[in-house]
Design a protein that fits this description.
The protein is mainly α. It has helices spanning about 15-35, 40-50, 55-75, 85-110, 115-140, 145-150, 150-165, 185-205, 210-220, 225-245, 255-275, 280-305, 310-345, and strands spanning about 5-10, 15, 175, 180-185.
Length: about 350
């Protein structure tokens, strides 16, 4: 496989082109489907396979920016983007990204950035996955009537959080008709996007793996609109993140380009799949995916602590294998739904 290796001059390493394209395709499908940049896969994967953490973060943000252009455009055509909510998010997200990137630069000088970022991933990924699985299996109404009326049941499941926040009347109050939100404090919206922007700059993510659930459970958006709006916000935060890391010399643009080749194809499939899979189905698959990603980072951290090579191999196999498996699941559901739709229209 050495024939497919290329030299990456900025990162100062050799990397397999096929692996970059596969990572890009899987993240394109998963990002388009879940409404996230997919950095919970890309940053750990690049780090596991040889990138220094700061270069993995910067390169991932460049890839996120390019992929999100394709996915956001397609979601917009499907009516899944709340542009008003997305535009409000930009200022807070960019401020958060800059704050997160500055913290990374400080930690890089100290010399322990990789370990801190990995532990942050572990806490957030496994914590968020546990919350969403709990919501799916215990909070979600289990009777058959509620299952047939998913829109109503999903509203009840997230009412405790989002409606409590909506009762906080700190002016100015804003409404988001596209998302069906009558009134919410602007400060709450700005705070959510500032925190996810900070995570974007700190962890090399578009912020989507926490922003999409935040839009659903805290802001109260329907799942499909949360997916599309999140991608729109990821587009802008990823663009600024790419810019600020490029100024710091931490973006390997060649690697980002090859990942975009796969991502441009995968994003089309992922976005289309949203049309055929129900909101709670999206949330369940999302929770499972980030749980796999979290465990891969746990194993990588064990490798860094013990220096036993087999743990690094296991971590790499887990993050790539779970991404491929989830990509296959989403694509198979998409193709099955398309076949059924064609059969019914004949």
């Amino acid at each position: 496989m050495d024939i497919f290796n290329i030299t990456l001059p900025v990162a100062g390493i050799e990397f397999n082109v096929i692996l970059l394209i596969i990572i890009g395709f899987c993240v394109g499908v998963l990002g388009g489907f879940f409404g996230v940049g997919g950095a919970w896969i890309v940053t750990p994967a690049l780090n596991i396979f040889g990138f220094h953490m700061s270069y993995a973060i910067g390169t991932d943000l460049a890839h996120i920016f390019g992929k999100s252009i394709v996915a956001t455009r397609k979601h917009s055509k499907m009516g899944n983007v709340d542009w008003k909510l997305g535009m409000i998010s930009i200022v807070a997200s960019i401020a958060g990204v800059e704050g997160g990137s500055q913290v990374i630069m400080v930690l890089e000088k100290v010399g322990n950035v990789g370990s801190i970022v990995r532990w942050s991933y572990i806490i957030l990924l496994l914590g968020l996955s546990s919350f969403m699985l709990y919501d799916y299996f215990f909070v979600r109404p289990s009777n058959k009537q509620a299952l047939k009326k998913e829109t109503a049941s999903s509203t009840r499941s997230k009412a405790n959080l989002s409606q409590r926040l909506h009762r906080i009347k700190i002016p100015p109050m804003v409404s988001f008709p596209t998302s069906g939100i009558e009134s919410v404090s602007l400060w709450i919206v700005l705070f959510v996007f500032f925190i996810t922007g900070f995570l974007s700059g700190f962890m090399g993510v578009g912020g989507g793996f926490i922003r999409m659930p935040a839009l659903v459970y805290l802001i109260g958006c329907p799942t499909a609109i949360a997916v599309g709006t999140d991608l729109m916000s990821v587009l802008f935060s990823g663009a600024y993140g790419c810019f600020t890391y490029a100024l710091k010399g931490r973006v390997e643009i060649i690697a980002a380009f090859y990942m975009l080749i796969g991502a441009s194809i995968g994003a089309q499939l992922g976005v289309t799949a949203v049309k055929y899979i129900r909101g709670y189905g999206i949330r369940l698959l999302f929770a499972i995916m980030i749980a796999f990603a979290g465990f891969s980072v746990v194993i990588e951290q064990i490798y860094k602590m013990t220096n036993i090579p087999v743990y690094s191999v296991i971590a790499g196999v887990l993050v790539i294998g779970s991404s491929i498996l989830m990509t296959v699941v989403i694509c198979s559901k998409l193709f099955k739904a398309v076949r059924n739709e064609k059969r019914l229209t004949r």
